[in-house]
Specification:
15 helices, 398 residues
């Protein structure tokens, strides 16, 4: 069943909005560790600020997911947009560690309040027959925004200050606000906590949360470590760092879109998740061993982000398959809570490891953990088959 032309055009706004939001967020966030070190905020303190973006999600992801089912997701996205403006302008004026912490909290809340309702709303609106392709296009916007944001931030900071970048990004939030206003909305449902509990207490959901933890740990390590590793250890220039983000993010986007078309034809969550975790874990372990300069960094990041594309697409596809459409917001919020808790832990532990050892040790510990989880998941194929079949993704039963 094809969607009406008007509905398809309105669906296009979702990846466009997520692209725009990603450019704004990542152009600052990927370069924030270096900016904090230049302010004198180093090591453990630096890792805590980065981890705070995940800590806010830990506190708010599940309630916000439930709210996105109970209230208008579109209006929640508008609120998130406003909070992002406050974060960017507030960080621009922050001169003390505690002021930076306060703005990091606002930024974490703002990005979550925009991205989580946007994602859950999109998953409610897509049709099952083209699920993979629709998810692929959505993730294309997410990852290409990451690539462009990281590149734009790096190039901009070669000539201008972080304070100028924050002002430009705050201005870019205004057209995003207008685009968000025209998003298609969903009908709210009554809130019954017991129904969410029944959704979550299943083997396939618990397995989903396990590989979400593994991915979150590795994502937290990268958030706190990757930019500093390129800047301090292999001594890349700002432009080279920006180019690494551009290539890796663009490669991630292309692969996510390709996975969407493949998934519609050959539905196989097992291969996506186990294969992706294995590739990501191995490349994390190899990063401090084989990366010596710009070219080796580009090559290894391309291999690594191919694994990331498999994992991330697999996560989103499984969420859309195993949860009922009407309650996907709350269940997606719980999954995001678990992921952000793992990301917070990964970022904070990485900060401690950097302070006690070096950047390479953070990659090694993270990669070993990811590979251990991948090894365990190899023996869980029957549960993955139930994920492929799905349960109630297109039912309207409340």
């Amino acid at each position: 069943m094809k969607l009406p032309i008007s509905s398809r055009r309105r669906l296009i706004l979702f990846p466009v909005c997520h692209f725009w939001c990603s450019v704004i967020f990542w152009s600052v966030f990927l370069h924030l560790p270096v900016y904090l070190e230049d302010m004198g905020i180093c090591g453990n303190a630096n890792g805590f600020v980065i981890a705070l973006f995940s800590l806010t999600a830990i506190m708010m992801a599940a309630p916000l997911g439930w709210l996105s089912d109970r209230l208008s997701p579109r209006y929640l996205c508008l609120l998130g947009n406003v909070l992002l403006i406050v974060y960017l302008l507030g960080l621009r004026g922050a001169s003390t560690y505690w002021a930076v912490i306060a703005m990091a909290f606002v930024g974490g809340v703002g990005s979550l309040v925009y991205q989580l309702p946007l994602s859950s709303l999109y998953l409610k609106l897509i049709h099952s027959q083209t699920r993979g392709q629709r998810i692929g296009w959505f993730l294309l916007g997410v990852f290409f925004g990451y690539a462009v944001g990281g590149f734009f931030g790096g190039v901009f900071l070669q000539r201008y200050s972080m304070e100028s970048l924050l002002l430009v990004d705050a201005a870019l939030c205004v057209p995003l606000l207008l685009l968000t206003w025209f998003l298609q909305d969903s009908e709210p449902i009554p809130f019954h906590l017991s129904l969410y509990g029944k959704d979550l207490w299943r083997k396939e959901v618990l397995l989903l949360l396990l590989f979400v933890v593994a991915f979150g740990i590795h994502a937290g390590c990268e958030r706190a470590t990757i930019t500093l590793f390129m800047k301090r250890t292999i001594e890349l220039e700002r432009f080279e760092i920006a180019f690494v983000f551009l290539i890796a993010g663009s490669w991630l986007a292309v692969n996510a879109l390709f996975m969407g078309f493949v998934f519609d034809r050959y539905r196989n969550a097992y291969l996506l998740i186990v294969g992706g975790l294995s590739i990501s874990g191995v490349t994390l372990l190899l990063t401090p061993i084989v990366v010596r300069g710009f070219r080796s960094m580009i090559l290894l990041r391309c291999v690594h982000t191919f694994g990331d594309a498999l994992i991330i697409f697999g996560q989103v596809a499984v969420v859309s398959l195993i949860f009922r459409r009407a309650r996907v917001g709350g269940n997606f919020g719980v999954q995001r809570l678990v992921q952000e808790l793992a990301t917070f832990s990964g970022a904070y532990i990485s900060g401690v490891l950097i302070e006690s050892y070096d950047y390479g040790m953070a990659f090694i510990i993270s990669g070993a953990f990811v590979l251990a989880v991948a090894a365990f998941l190899m023996f869980q194929r029957p549960i993955f088959r139930r994920m492929d079949v799905g349960r109630g993704g297109d039912d309207e039963v409340l």
